[in-house]
Amino acid sequence: ALPELTVPSWAIAISANSADHIAQQLRLGEPAVFSRVQDGRVLIDLRTVLPADETALLARLLALNRV
């Protein structure tokens, strides 16, 4: 509701030949990981990742490396 408000955060940045494809694979996988594409990189905002979900996120990222 406040598009001009900036909230400080950390993000994981993933460089890839096809950032859109990586973002799609993350979104469609189990568990789904939501990200954004900016400047040719996939960004995962860590504000959206609960500590209990960190292991699942790591598993999703490692699975992408095998594709």
Question: How would you explain this protein's 3D organization?
Answer:
33% of the residues lie in helices and 19% in strands. The chain has 67 residues and is α+β, with helices and mostly antiparallel strands. A three-stranded antiparallel sheet has the order 1-3-2. The chain starts with 10 loop residues before the first strand and ends with a helix. 12% of the residues are buried. The model has no long low-confidence stretch (mean pLDDT 88).
Q: Care to give the gist of this entry?
A:
This protein has 67 residues and is α+β, with helices and mostly antiparallel strands. The protein has two helices and three strands.
Task: Please give the radius of gyration in angstroms.
Answer: 12 Å
Distance between the termini: 37 Å
Identify the overall geometry.
globular
How many DSSP-defined strands? 3
Q: How are the strands of the biggest sheet laid out side by side?
A: 1-3-2
Stretches with pLDDT under 50, minimum 5 residues: none
User: How much helix is in the residues?
Assistant: 25-40%
Output the helix-strand order: EHEEH
How large a portion of the residues is in β-strands, by DSSP E?
15-25%
User: Structural class, please?
Assistant: alpha+beta
| Sheet with the most strands, sense and barrel status | 3 strands, antiparallel
Number of helices: 2
Task: Let me know the average pLDDT.
Answer: 88
